[in-house]
Amino acid sequence: MAIPTYDQFIEPVLRFLATRPDGALAREVYEAAADAMQLTDEERAELLPSHAQQVYKNRIGWAHDRLKRAGLSSSAKRGFWCLTDEGKIFAASNVGPLSQGLVADLAFGYMDVRLKEATSTTEPIITPIKNDSAAETSSPEERLGSAVKEMRESVAADLLETLAKVSPTYFETIVLDLLHKMGYGANRNDLQRVGGSGDGGIDGVISLDKLGLEKVYVQAKRWQSSVGRPEIQGFYGALAGQRATKGVFITTSAYTAQAIDFARSVERIVLVDGIKLAELMIDHEVGVSTRIVKIPKFDSDYFED
After folding, report:
1. Per-residue pLDDT for 116 more than 60?
2. β-bridge mates for residue 220, sequence order
3. 151 and 299: one domain?
């Protein structure tokens, strides 16, 4: 038989994780779901066209992505999956086989889940948005664009989830790596981490010229709650103490409206929230790998006399 589609793997993944309340390694989930669907050795060996991964593992990964978007599971750490409290309740409340409608809702109802910037000192909000587009009426170019968008959103969610778990020191290093990839500093040594106790509100310094006459000061906060005006004012004061004219404040969360208004009023501070941070990491391939896919297009000019 053909390898099941990713939506058909949703229930096997859910059921196996429900038997592991403390979570399980992703590789264990792969094999348990494959066993549940009775995949043959040949089917397990089949690779994606890119040869980057086995097809069944790729589809199981997307099945887990859907459970994560629905708020039913999480990646507690790299390669380790665990149902959330909501996921455990959901599994216990649906002991029989999931209906086709429920599976379809999990598979397609949360495809556009995204992090929405909070406007108060609360955690970023995850907002599910129903996907009403009819894939069968879309052109190949539209489907390709939608697929790339979906993969970017999935990677962005993984990045933010991982960044929330790294140490503050490592987060500061990641931020400086990103800024260097974006073109700041002639070499990586021009970006120095200075964070720590008594850092005066400065976590990193970027020298924009060989003599270090022009500098950008960086504040990096791995926060869950939104950054408010007092924190931005404190950073502004730290910049004034350094007689600095440029500052970048980067957080994994969001900013309150008051913080954004203050940054705009002083002009010298640029704010980067979690959503923008993830986008920049994807665009500049920090903690992200990419591959080139060649898409053929008919060249009618070649055949003209």
Report:
1. no
2. 250
3. yes
How does pLDDT run across 214-267, given as a tens digit for each residue? 889 999 999 989 999 999 999 999 998 888 889 999 999 999 999 999 999 997
Which CATH number goes with the domain that contains 240?
3.40.1350.10
Give the Å distances, CA to CA, from 61 to 74, 106, 301.
12, 14, 42
Kindly state whether residues 174 and 241 are assigned to the same domain.
Answer: yes
Tell me the whole-structure pTM to 2 decimals. Answer: 0.69
Count other C-beta atoms under 10 Å from residue 228's C-beta: 16
Per residue in 54-64, pLDDT (tens digit) is 999 999 999 99
The DSSP line for 178-194 is HHHHTT-SSSGGGEEE-
| Strands, E assignment, the chain | 24-25, 73-77, 80-83, 114-116, 125-127, 191-193, 204-207, 215-221, 247-251, 269-272
Do residue 91 and residue 158 come from a single domain? no
Q: Which amino acid is at 172?
A: E
Q: Does residue 259 share a domain with residue 125?
A: yes
* Cα separation, 94 vs 215, whole angstroms: 58
Q: Which domain holds residue 241?
A: 112-305
Q: Is the pLDDT of residue 137 over 60?
A: no
Distance CA 191, CA 208 (A): 9
Q: Residue written as tokens 């990646």?
A: 75
**DSSP H or E stretch at residue 144:** helix 140-163
| Residues 6 or more apart whose Cβ sits within 8 Å of residue 279 | 152, 156
Where do we find the tokens 């593992």? 57
